[in-house]
């Protein structure tokens, strides 16, 4: 069995059961004027990982392995947005309000779109998720089952929220999870470091972490 150099120990990879999940690389989280910036965050921390995320996506495409994208967003009528979620954050600019890139985190709005550099290509699955985890109220589990996927490589943002939440959901469902360290980021560097430590603690209690180059080297041989 092939292995990817990883922490806390090598990840035993099965290429025919492997997929990449790119979490929420959306304009609203990465561009000036978006929802992330409205909360006072330095969005340049997000954009700096774009080249590594792009390399990872291209590597999976070249190897003929599935790439799945997620977007955090809600229905235009807000019927899938709990008041407890809407009432948090910046009181002057909330989910569903008009922002510089359309209604914030609403399906179909310009700011909700994935960054152009990382845009899905024909045939790639895009999951619109109303929660932090990508399995909640979505078809992700069915998609993975139909494709015979049991191992997941994760990239995207933010490390400690939507990425870690989805990894924990996947872990509980029996998936083996690997986080690409340079292809994920937080607005807060200490939060990313803490999330990585939690994920791979106690013998990969949630999953493994690895460098992008080591992942790409492995899937090139798939």
Automatic annotation (TrEMBL):
Gene3D superfamilies: Isochorismatase-like. GO terms for molecular function: hydrolase activity. The keyword ATP-binding does not apply. Residues 19-207 form the Isochorismatase-like domain. The keyword Amino-acid biosynthesis does not apply. Keywords: Hydrolase. This is Nicotinamidase-related amidase.
